[in-house]
Amino acid sequence: MKKIIIAAIAREPLFEYKSQLKDFFGDSIYIEDYSLEQPDKKIDGDLVIVLTPTLKAIAYNVLKNGKTPVICIQTVPTKKQVEIINNIPDNSKVLIISAFRFYAKEIIEVLNRLSKESLNFIPYYLDIRDKTIENIDLSVYVGDESLRPSFAKNYINIGWKKIHPQSFKEIINILFPKNSNFIRKLNTYEKSVANIEFSELVAIKLKNESRIEVSGIIDCMKEGVIILDEMDRIVDYNNLISKYFNIEKYVYENYSIYEIPYLKDIADSLKSINNNIEIDYYFKDINKAFKISKEILRFQSIGFRKIIRVNYNEFNKRRPENNKPKYKFEDIHYKSKEMGECVDIAKKISKIDSPILIVGETGTGKELLSHAIHNHSHRKKNLFFAVNCTAFQDSLLESELFGYEPGSFTGALSTGKKGIFEIANGGTVFLDEIGDAPMNIQSKLLRVLQEKEIRRIGGNESIPINVRIVSATNKNLKEYMDRGMFRKDLYYRLNTYILNIPPLRERREDIRLLIMYYLNNLGYKYKVIDNNLVRYMMNLPWEGNIRELKNCVDYLGYMSGSRITIDDLPKQYKNDNGNNINSDLKVNNDKRVFYGLSEKEEHICKFIVRALRKENMGRRKIYDLALEKGIQTTEHKIRKMMKLLEDDGYVLIKRGRKGCILTDKGIRLYERIIL
Length: 675
Fold this sequence. Notes:
Blueprint: E1 2-7, H1 11-25, E2 29-34, E3 47-50, H2 53-61, E4 70-72, E5 75-76, H3 79-86, E6 93-97, H4 101-114, E7 120-124, E8 138-141, E9 155-157, E10 162-163, H5 165-175, H6 180-190, H7 198-219, E11 224-228, E12 234-237, H8 239-245, H9 263-270, E13 279-283, E14 288-299, E15 303-312, H10 337-349, E16 356-359, H11 366-375, E17 384-388, H12 394-402, H13 420-423, E18 428-432, H14 439-451, E19 453-454, E20 463-464, E21 468-473, H15 477-482, H16 488-494, E22 497-500, H17 509-521, E23 528-529, H18 531-538, H19 545-559, E24 563-564, H20 599-614, H21 619-628, H22 635-647, E25 651-653, E26 660-662, H23 664-673
Parallel strand pairs: 1-2, 1-3, 3-4, 6-7, 6-8, 8-9, 16-21, 16-22, 17-18, 18-21, 23-24
Antiparallel strand pairs: 5-10, 11-12, 11-15, 13-14, 14-15, 19-20, 25-26
Domain Sigma-54 factor interaction: 332-558
Protein name: Transcriptional regulator containing PAS, AAA-type ATPase, and DNA-binding Fis domains
Pfam families: AAA_lid_14 (PF25601), Sigma54_activat (PF00158)
């Protein structure tokens, strides 16, 4: 006789599946049950069976003999049970009742795969036992009747699910590998249960257990969290969301977020906002202000999900301590003459209040230099704000910079809000990627520079300000002016003093110094780097400049042994010229055809040409496709590059469903630049 230990979370399923095992194996087995209420009790037997994956780890911890096998059995409806469900009238609203949330959801997922599509299954479990669900046509118990909702009038019990044949087969292989009687019995048993793959049941169970873990994690967080699926349906939300908006926990699972009061307003506000950008939102009727943002996260087993974060912001205050610049000129590491001249000029002009325009390729350290300029100026004790002009939607950028009066637009705070220029009074505002600032913002910036005053959105009063503006770009602004994409009057106001940061390839003697600096500061100072590798790296083009070099050194430090050699380099640096061409886009980036643009903008233009060669599409679809390919951009940037391509005769922008198309000139361009 073989001894089986069976463990379950609740008594009812434990007794049921203990009975099913006994019915199948008869006197060949002796079954002992294990309760989670006895955590110190050690168990011993020929096989341990658990009903959920979570219990598997617990079982291993209480085994007397660590070699005892532990398996998690799967359960499946019988063909008769599926037939009963399929006999329910079409379009019925069917309540699936179980004591546990995860079990009710698991049953529904299985029934959705086995039964007709016209039935609407609603889970009901202990956590929502006080809620009345309206218009239920039929309530269904799957074995356990311990939970009886008072509003359930018509109900049936289809009985417990049965142990899956594959689970029985696993038990036979472990305990009775040569018993042909059990094999024959299993063949007969298999004909009575519904046809669903064992692997599907495993995936469903793991998915639901993962959801429970995620739910527990977000309930511990100190901010409101909403998790959405790819169709913007609610997967989960935490207790703080329930508290903020007075909505019951679990009630709105699987609802579209656009069906739920307050939450739909948050979702609408974030539609056109980039990921990880925090904005203010005010609900007038409940008199609450929040900071809201969105991002994409990947959860194990349940895949990619959209996350909305909601932070309660009672006083809507900006914290000045977050606006102190971190870097000084001492933090800029160099020994080249070119960089030395740049730093010397920066130190001199930091002492005056005139605007400064920093020009340099991506990754050269433009923001770091702006920090150093502020910390070397007489404004160093005042606030410093860094604003990336491409990180915000046009209207949002305007409200962030200039503020707004109460009630200026939907979602505006009832108290109004100061903009960055007001808050930074006496300090410095750094405008990064100024070349991408929308035209309406450019005209308002001109007023700031000329009149030293701003006007809030929705306001009539001119507010005097005293800020120093440092701006930066990696664009050819003169080329932008010629194309009508940047105001000439603003350009000549911003460029009173121009600082040109040389790219890394023009100051190669700094590369060795920077490699050693990053090795030490990234935690790899104990490693030795081969001189041949340093010489090799000094000859690479470093199109991403210092940022790219830092990432490469970090990779080398982590992936190498005690000595770092050329063999440790990432693959993209090992070809003949060191260039890393994005194979997904299949674009020849060595051929420059859009002069006056940054390399990133040229890359986007080539991507647009390739996308339109495949099919006609609108800007929004091009933007979505770019995000799918991992291209970091914004809708504003796509719109700007599309306008440039149209002006040059490469594309024709049409309204409506026809979208945008390549012209004959655009097709010739495609043939010239696409591999």
